[in-house]
# Entry
Amino acid sequence: MDVEGARLIGAGLAIGLGAIGPGVGVGLIVKGALESIGRNPDAAGQIQTLMYIGAGLTEAITIYALVITILILFAV
# Structure
């Protein structure tokens, strides 16, 4: 395998594996928030705020994976 092929496979794996975990994580965060709002609708505002913070922190992991992918593709 040549170097260019290895870079492309590495970049694909970096963003693929780096995005699947946060995707599942955001799904679990939203599921938990909706269940909580269903049990206690009066706390919907507080739950939504915490849900957005948690989803944002989880999505930051995907941005790190994207940065690594760009480095693999263009900086090496």
